[in-house]
Fold this sequence. Notes:
The chain has one domain (18-213). 26% of the residues lie in helices and 23% in strands. The chain has helices spanning 18-23, 40-47, 70-75, 107-111, 150-154, 158-167, 184-192, 200-205, and strands spanning 30-36, 55-56, 83-90, 93-98, 117-123, 129-135, 138-144, 209-213. It has an eight-stranded antiparallel sheet with strand order 2-8-3-4-1-5-6-7, with helices on both faces. Helix 6 packs across helix 7 (184-192).
Amino acid sequence: MPEPGFAPGALDTDGDPKWITELACADPNHVLHVVRGLDPKAALEVIGAKPHLIQRCELPASKPDDWTSLPGLALGIDPGTSAALLAGSVGGWTFVYDDSGHTDSEAAEALSASGRTAATSVFTINADASMTYFADGEELAWINVDDLTEEDVADFPDELRAAFETAGVVEQDYLEPGDFDYAVTMRATCALAGLTALTIEDLRALPLLGAAFG
């Protein structure tokens, strides 16, 4: 696989998009959902956020400690009590970031209803990394990074294959030849939604919504 086709400086040393790293707490257990053709409020509600808890969200300048996420701080959520969801749109895609992994990893199925395309990337504190990809309510791919091969990528639907080719591989000490690094699904999900050059400054300039969840 090629090197990532992200903007210069857009990835951290682990290969994660920096805008996600800067939102997350240390040792994250988090989820990223993306959907084409659905606005942020509707996406939050489909995922399960209660409508009365959805509010405008302005990201703070910094985190007070390693264990607080920026969305959690913005929403006044104590770490460990519930998840903080953050949603916004770039182009025709909406993203929903879940700082604690409380949302359903199969949310892409509901997000993709009525002809839409959606994907969900999960990364756990145990470095389990996976991704689901749905179109019109149908699962077209489920990816476990531990089992992923270049032959699998070649057989993906065109849009998803292109996203993984853009995601590429970030060389790490733990990788054997032909292995994918554990951040590949977060990069592929971002690539699918056209978020390869997004920065935290760009994020702060967007109209964002947030909600406590769980």
